[in-house]
Specification:
By secondary structure, this protein is an alpha+beta fold. The chain contains 14 helices and 16 strands.
Amino acid sequence: MPHTRLASFAFTTALLSGATTAHAADPLQGRVDEIIPPLMQEQGIAGMAVAVYANGQAHYFTYGVASKDDHTAVTADTLFEIGSLSKTYTATLAALASAEGKLDLEAPAKRYQPALAGTPLGEASVLELGVYSADCLPLQFPDAVQTAEQTLNFFRTWKPRAERGTQRCYSNPSLGLFGDLAARAQHRPFAELMAQRLLPQMGLKHTYLQVPASAQGLYAQGYDAQNRPVRVSPGPYADEAYGIKTSATDLLRYVRLHMQPAELSPALRNATAITQAGYFQVGAMTQGLGWERYPYPAALVTLVDGNSPRLIQEPQATQRLTPALPALPKAWYNKTGSTSGFGVYAAFIPSENRAIVLLANRNYPNEARVRAAYQILSSLDH
């Protein structure tokens, strides 16, 4: 990605919002100020929102503009596309169905989608699809696959590239089918379950699959690698794999509730634990449902490598953990997410009661996101 310099960067960096519990003399704000504006300049990012949970408080830091056309300032309520971080929401929805006895994660896919009976993929378990370890599905659907009929035909004719459970192949089709099966098990459309069940139960009032007209004014404009305005396009399983739009306020609440689920219903508390359990080992990373985890303290080089392009673009040898490892308080949980015009990162450490989310209206390298988050959270140790 080119390191485009923003012509209006003096204006951009001046737009640090007052929507924060921190003050100018707060060392945390000073640290965030040291890290984020230079990152934005280096990566050509028009606007960012950063939220940190530490010492029992939420802190919000906002920079730059949501739109370069009208210079709307980013606030803690600005809506960003979060790309594949949406996979953790899908995983939580499925885990809630599991906790309520409505979905068997070990059941074969054909149980919930009978059209897959008699196919290799129909024998894969719901769980294997949710952790990208079923028959090494591709990262994206082919361009020719657009309709529901074409999507189903793609799955029915898919020829496995690896023995199930031996290769982790990060895949939107795999995670998308996982979410679809969770919805079919409950006999309701996925989007309806997300909007009417999961999001309200977590108190997420400004999180959407489809941004309503009443919230369009808060929806940031994304910018691609050539600085062209762009927003996410619909596609097969877009809702399940990369469809969430949310604010720094709502995203930090969502991450905090995964870290501190006591205020949730018993079933939803159980669901968060299901997403954070360890099901497969992939090098230094333990694959949960949606979330990826590392022993804490985690070295920066380990986190950078675990979020590197090779883990997204290349098959990785994986080993099933039987029984699954329980959720661990002393761990670094994280997930990146991108669309053509947005880049986000979320991480939390239950044992430290610390969490961070970074939202930007440009897709920039994961390494830069991880480094910034690590530097900010590490500063809390001093």
